[in-house]
Amino acid sequence: MPKPQRHVLVCTNMRPPGNPKGSCGEKGSEALYARFKDMVRERGLRDTVIVSRTSCLKHCSRGITVAVYPDNAWYGSVRAEDLDEICVSHLEGGRPVERLAMPDIPWE
Amino acid sequence: MPKPQRHVLVCTNMRPPGNPKGSCGEKGSEALYARFKDMVRERGLRDTVIVSRTSCLKHCSRGITVAVYPDNAWYGSVRAEDLDEICVSHLEGGRPVERLAMPDIPWE
Predict the structure, then answer these.
(1) Angle CA(B19)–CA(B25)–CA(B30) in degrees, nearest 5?
(2) pLDDT digits over A53-78, tens only?
(3) What is the pLDDT of residue B1?
(4) Do B69 and A74 touch (CB under 8 A)?
(5) Are B38 and B28 spatial neighbours (Cβ–Cβ below 8 Å)?
(6) Across-strand partners of B52?
(7) pLDDT tens across B33-49, in order?
(8) pLDDT for position A1
């Protein structure tokens, strides 16, 4: 199984405090990433889903930014309490979570 | 443009020296990632392609591992001298580079 059914990217880029862009890292994305990985394992998805931490995903001010491939579905302002819905609706059910969709804004 | 036309993932996971799995990091993936980003900018692809460094992509012994989404195309044993072909053939031409395709092996 060299190709995941779905691949979740969590931006963990950290900018210095006070940077005007802000960053996903300072919003707690390392913990969100760790929780997402645990949840995927707990729900028995580890053989089909990969969760990766990444460098900047270019939506700093709308972070925490999460992308799901191959759907090319992007989520903004993701918080720990959203992860269950993303798992159930999107990763298991194939239905992206519309309320979390990243708005159509330029890359930062 | 919130969704990239293509998104390149470069595994930069580093394991301690002597780890039996090896790692992409110890094979020079940080430099490969930096070169890939530079090349995407030099070729005028920066408005449509994102290059991200990631945590472990689960093909440690076949690294450096690179994945390209939304194609879900996976490459193994990628070296600096392969990047030009990946850019021209895949990112610009839409044709994955078959000679670099990751074999159909289990995740590590």
Answers:
(1) 170
(2) 999 999 999 999 999 999 999 999 99
(3) 54
(4) no
(5) no
(6) B9
(7) 999 999 999 999 999 99
(8) 54
Dig out the tokens for A59 from the structure. Answer: 């939506």
Cβ-based contacts of B9 with chain A (< 8 Å): 7, 9, 52, 54
Contact B58 A69 (CB under 8 A): no
Q: What is the pTM of this model?
A: 0.96
**B79 pLDDT band (50/70/90 cuts)?**
very high
Placement of tokens 């002597």 in the chain: B18
Please answer whether residues A57 and A24 qualify as being in contact, where contact means their C-beta atoms are separated by less than 8 angstroms: yes
Instruction: Please write down the long-range contacts of B90-97, taking CB distance under 8 Å and 24 or more positions apart.
Output: B90/B6, B91/B6, B91/B8, B91/B40, B91/B43, B91/B45, B91/B49, B92/B43, B92/B45, B96/B68, B96/B71
Report ipTM for this prediction: 0.95
Q: How far is B39 from chain A (nearest CA, A)?
A: 17
Cβ proximity of A41 and A101 under 8 Å: no
Q: What are phi and psi of B69, to 5 degrees?
A: -110, 160
Helix intervals (H) in chain B? 29-42, 83-85
Chain A residues whose beta carbon lies within 8 Å of the beta carbon of residue B55: 52-54
